[in-house]
Design a protein that fits this description.
The chain has 178 residues and is mainly beta. 11% of the residues lie in helices and 35% in strands. It has a single domain, classed as Sandwich (Immunoglobulin-like), CATH 2.60.40. It has one helix and 13 strands. Strands 4-5-11-8 form a four-stranded antiparallel beta sheet, with no helix packed on it. Strands 9-7-12-13 form a four-stranded antiparallel beta sheet, with no helix packed on it. The chain has a three-stranded antiparallel beta sheet with strand order 1-6-10, with no helix packed on it. Strand 12 and strand 13 form a beta hairpin. The protein starts with a helix and ends in a 6-residue tail after the last strand.
Protein backbone atom coordinates (compact mmCIF):
# COMPACT_ATOMS: atom_id res chain seq x y z
CA UNK A 1 0.00 0.00 0.00
CA UNK A 2 2.81 2.43 0.88
CA UNK A 3 4.38 1.67 -2.49
CA UNK A 4 1.24 2.79 -4.34
CA UNK A 5 1.03 6.04 -2.37
CA UNK A 6 4.65 6.95 -3.08
CA UNK A 7 4.34 6.03 -6.74
CA UNK A 8 1.25 8.20 -7.24
CA UNK A 9 2.96 11.12 -5.48
CA UNK A 10 6.03 10.84 -7.67
CA UNK A 11 3.96 10.66 -10.86
CA UNK A 12 1.88 13.70 -9.84
CA UNK A 13 5.05 15.70 -8.99
CA UNK A 14 6.71 14.80 -12.33
CA UNK A 15 3.60 15.75 -14.31
CA UNK A 16 3.38 19.14 -12.56
CA UNK A 17 7.06 19.77 -13.37
CA UNK A 18 6.56 18.88 -17.02
CA UNK A 19 3.56 21.18 -17.37
CA UNK A 20 5.43 24.05 -15.71
CA UNK A 21 8.36 23.64 -18.07
CA UNK A 22 6.06 23.91 -21.10
CA UNK A 23 4.61 27.24 -19.94
CA UNK A 24 4.66 30.07 -22.49
CA UNK A 25 7.24 32.71 -21.46
CA UNK A 26 6.57 35.20 -24.28
CA UNK A 27 4.73 37.56 -21.94
CA UNK A 28 7.17 37.14 -19.05
CA UNK A 29 10.57 38.66 -18.46
CA UNK A 30 12.81 38.24 -21.52
CA UNK A 31 15.90 36.14 -21.07
CA UNK A 32 19.11 38.15 -20.88
CA UNK A 33 21.59 37.45 -23.68
CA UNK A 34 24.80 35.68 -22.70
CA UNK A 35 27.78 37.95 -22.04
CA UNK A 36 30.28 38.41 -24.87
CA UNK A 37 33.05 35.85 -24.91
CA UNK A 38 36.19 36.69 -23.01
CA UNK A 39 38.02 33.74 -24.53
CA UNK A 40 40.92 34.92 -26.65
CA UNK A 41 43.09 33.56 -29.43
CA UNK A 42 46.84 33.79 -29.03
CA UNK A 43 48.66 33.76 -32.35
CA UNK A 44 52.45 33.30 -32.32
CA UNK A 45 54.22 35.71 -34.66
CA UNK A 46 57.30 34.79 -36.66
CA UNK A 47 60.25 37.17 -36.76
CA UNK A 48 60.24 39.63 -39.64
CA UNK A 49 61.51 38.16 -42.88
CA UNK A 50 64.95 39.14 -44.09
CA UNK A 51 65.40 40.53 -47.58
CA UNK A 52 68.50 39.52 -49.47
CA UNK A 53 70.61 42.07 -51.36
CA UNK A 54 69.57 42.49 -55.01
CA UNK A 55 70.88 39.90 -57.47
CA UNK A 56 73.58 41.62 -59.57
CA UNK A 57 72.12 40.29 -62.84
CA UNK A 58 68.34 40.39 -62.32
CA UNK A 59 68.13 43.01 -59.59
CA UNK A 60 65.57 40.79 -57.82
CA UNK A 61 65.51 40.52 -54.05
CA UNK A 62 64.44 37.38 -52.24
CA UNK A 63 62.53 37.35 -48.99
CA UNK A 64 63.70 34.62 -46.67
CA UNK A 65 61.74 33.64 -43.55
CA UNK A 66 63.88 34.11 -40.45
CA UNK A 67 63.37 31.62 -37.61
CA UNK A 68 63.85 32.39 -33.95
CA UNK A 69 67.49 31.64 -33.12
CA UNK A 70 69.74 31.80 -30.11
CA UNK A 71 72.94 33.71 -29.54
CA UNK A 72 75.43 33.74 -26.72
CA UNK A 73 75.60 36.86 -24.58
CA UNK A 74 77.52 37.80 -21.49
CA UNK A 75 75.44 39.11 -18.59
CA UNK A 76 76.85 40.55 -15.40
CA UNK A 77 75.05 39.65 -12.17
CA UNK A 78 76.44 41.10 -8.95
CA UNK A 79 79.87 41.60 -10.51
CA UNK A 80 80.13 38.11 -12.01
CA UNK A 81 79.97 37.52 -15.78
CA UNK A 82 77.86 34.64 -17.07
CA UNK A 83 77.57 33.38 -20.64
CA UNK A 84 73.91 32.69 -21.47
CA UNK A 85 71.96 31.63 -24.54
CA UNK A 86 69.33 34.24 -25.47
CA UNK A 87 66.52 33.79 -28.01
CA UNK A 88 66.58 36.45 -30.70
CA UNK A 89 64.44 38.32 -31.49
CA UNK A 90 62.19 38.44 -28.42
CA UNK A 91 59.13 36.22 -29.02
CA UNK A 92 55.87 38.02 -29.86
CA UNK A 93 52.20 37.02 -29.86
CA UNK A 94 49.06 38.69 -31.23
CA UNK A 95 46.07 38.41 -28.85
CA UNK A 96 42.53 38.73 -30.29
CA UNK A 97 38.93 37.96 -29.43
CA UNK A 98 37.06 35.43 -31.62
CA UNK A 99 35.59 38.29 -33.70
CA UNK A 100 39.13 39.49 -34.61
CA UNK A 101 39.17 42.55 -32.34
CA UNK A 102 42.29 43.14 -30.24
CA UNK A 103 41.87 41.72 -26.73
CA UNK A 104 43.04 44.92 -25.07
CA UNK A 105 43.14 44.69 -21.27
CA UNK A 106 43.30 40.88 -21.10
CA UNK A 107 46.07 39.40 -18.95
CA UNK A 108 48.50 36.91 -20.47
CA UNK A 109 50.80 34.65 -18.41
CA UNK A 110 54.07 33.36 -19.87
CA UNK A 111 55.85 30.13 -18.90
CA UNK A 112 58.51 27.78 -20.23
CA UNK A 113 58.36 24.04 -20.84
CA UNK A 114 61.97 23.60 -19.65
CA UNK A 115 64.24 25.49 -17.24
CA UNK A 116 65.22 28.96 -18.36
CA UNK A 117 64.27 32.56 -17.62
CA UNK A 118 61.86 35.15 -18.97
CA UNK A 119 62.04 38.90 -18.49
CA UNK A 120 58.25 39.07 -17.82
CA UNK A 121 55.86 36.35 -16.71
CA UNK A 122 52.63 38.43 -16.93
CA UNK A 123 51.55 41.24 -19.22
CA UNK A 124 48.34 43.10 -20.00
CA UNK A 125 47.44 43.27 -23.69
CA UNK A 126 47.91 46.84 -25.04
CA UNK A 127 45.87 48.50 -27.81
CA UNK A 128 48.19 46.99 -30.46
CA UNK A 129 47.37 43.45 -29.32
CA UNK A 130 51.06 42.51 -29.36
CA UNK A 131 52.56 40.93 -26.24
CA UNK A 132 56.02 39.57 -25.47
CA UNK A 133 57.70 38.04 -22.44
CA UNK A 134 60.77 40.10 -23.36
CA UNK A 135 64.21 38.49 -23.13
CA UNK A 136 64.11 34.68 -23.10
CA UNK A 137 67.18 32.88 -21.74
CA UNK A 138 67.29 29.15 -22.53
CA UNK A 139 68.98 26.51 -20.41
CA UNK A 140 71.28 23.73 -21.65
CA UNK A 141 71.61 24.64 -25.33
CA UNK A 142 73.27 22.16 -27.69
CA UNK A 143 76.10 21.24 -27.83
CA UNK A 144 76.53 21.01 -24.03
CA UNK A 145 78.57 23.92 -22.59
CA UNK A 146 80.12 24.77 -19.25
CA UNK A 147 80.61 21.20 -18.06
CA UNK A 148 77.05 20.11 -18.83
CA UNK A 149 76.67 16.48 -19.89
CA UNK A 150 73.41 16.88 -21.79
CA UNK A 151 71.51 19.46 -23.78
CA UNK A 152 67.93 20.28 -24.70
CA UNK A 153 67.53 20.86 -28.44
CA UNK A 154 64.03 22.39 -28.67
CA UNK A 155 62.54 24.64 -26.01
CA UNK A 156 59.15 26.37 -25.82
CA UNK A 157 57.66 29.58 -24.43
CA UNK A 158 53.92 29.37 -23.74
CA UNK A 159 51.46 32.31 -23.58
CA UNK A 160 48.33 31.48 -21.56
CA UNK A 161 45.24 33.71 -21.45
CA UNK A 162 42.80 33.78 -18.54
CA UNK A 163 40.22 32.20 -20.87
CA UNK A 164 41.02 30.62 -24.21
CA UNK A 165 43.69 28.42 -25.71
CA UNK A 166 47.39 29.03 -25.14
CA UNK A 167 49.83 29.86 -27.91
CA UNK A 168 53.47 28.85 -28.04
CA UNK A 169 56.74 29.41 -29.87
CA UNK A 170 59.42 26.74 -30.19
CA UNK A 171 63.08 27.52 -30.69
CA UNK A 172 65.88 25.18 -31.74
CA UNK A 173 68.65 25.76 -29.21
CA UNK A 174 71.41 24.14 -31.26
CA UNK A 175 74.35 26.44 -31.93
CA UNK A 176 75.77 26.11 -35.43
CA UNK A 177 79.14 24.44 -35.52
CA UNK A 178 82.08 26.74 -36.22
Amino acid sequence: MLHRIVSRSVVAFAAAGLLASCEDNTTGTPLTPPPPSTAVYINPLQPPDSITPPDPITGKRDTIPVPYTIEQRVVNIDGTDFVVAVVTPDPQFLVQFPDGDVAEGQEIAFSLNLPGALESTRVTVPASGLVSPGRWIVDNPCPPVGGATSCRGVQRVIARPTAGNPGFIDVDTTFPED
